[in-house]
Amino acid sequence: MSKTVSKVREPLFHIVKRSGLPWWQSWCIRILAVLIALIICGIITVILTGQNPLGVYGTMIEGAIGTQRRLWVLLQNVSMLLCVALAVTPAFRMRFWNIGAEGQVLIGGLATAVCMMNLGGKMPTAILIPVMILASILSGALWGIIPAIFKAKWNTNETLFTLMMNYIAIQLVSYFCLVKSVPKGSGTIGTINRDTQYGWFPTIGEYDYLLNVIIVLVLTVIMFIYLKYSKHGYEIAVVGESKNTARYIGVNVKKVIIRTMAVSGALCGVAGLLLVASTTGHTLSSETAGGRGFTAIMVSWLAKFNPLYMILTSLLIVFLQRGAIEISTIYGLNDSFSEIITGIIIFFIIGCEFFLNYSIKLCKKEVGE
What we know:
mainly alpha
């Protein structure tokens, strides 16, 4: 009687989840990913443009930090992006996918502009600025609470809800700019209170953006402490891990959802306040948020929801953006090429997260049955 023996061939490799890496190994992998990305970008640069890659990278550095003014513009953009990233982080840690930061920033900016234009000159600046701060925080919080209530009570899809509210905010700002436009019908309101400077935040010395940087750094430290050491931060983490577990240990899940989105929206409102009242533009338009609400999502994820790490990730993103603009200007290339360079580098940075969380094991043995 013959006996058939079959052999089961194992796959060439299999993927295993890592238990954890030392911090220095994690950063070595990230640095290696950036270096590989730069090499590939250099090859693409030579093929498509014939330019020296080292010259292109030098131009990127020059465009980002080549002069004192460029450095301060970089810091201003980093602080604004970081502020919005801080805002979306509590919601994301709770697994509430808040895609509405763009609209929440605009609503905060709208509230600020309304106060500046209608209350400027009618009350002292020492009272006007606190009123602007309060209005921006409350309006941003309201824009976050609305989808939170629907999620908490009727389990609606927060991603779609917050995304749709972006469009409502854009149209509200567009309508306001049309009504208040100078000249009438132009759709732009120009510099708010140009002559009187009512509601303008003060500058520190000769540095227009230093106040913004300081405010956002303080908010970063506060958010780090809030998420890591406060009771609210603990409840956010528990709800994010499992709503059932949170209910079992006595956490009011609905309350946590609404409260956390109020915090998220309020911080976005602060970003809108700073963009309108504390920058050299001192104006409002539907482009005031500048896409930061969506870019901030990537900043928060890359930093794994750690506010301190977000300083580095937001700096990296803004550095690449500013450098890419300089490349397009100096070499006469269109924006698409600079976006290709930026996209490749970000792709490798995001991709390396796979190797931080998983390892690839080779399989060499065959199993007989």
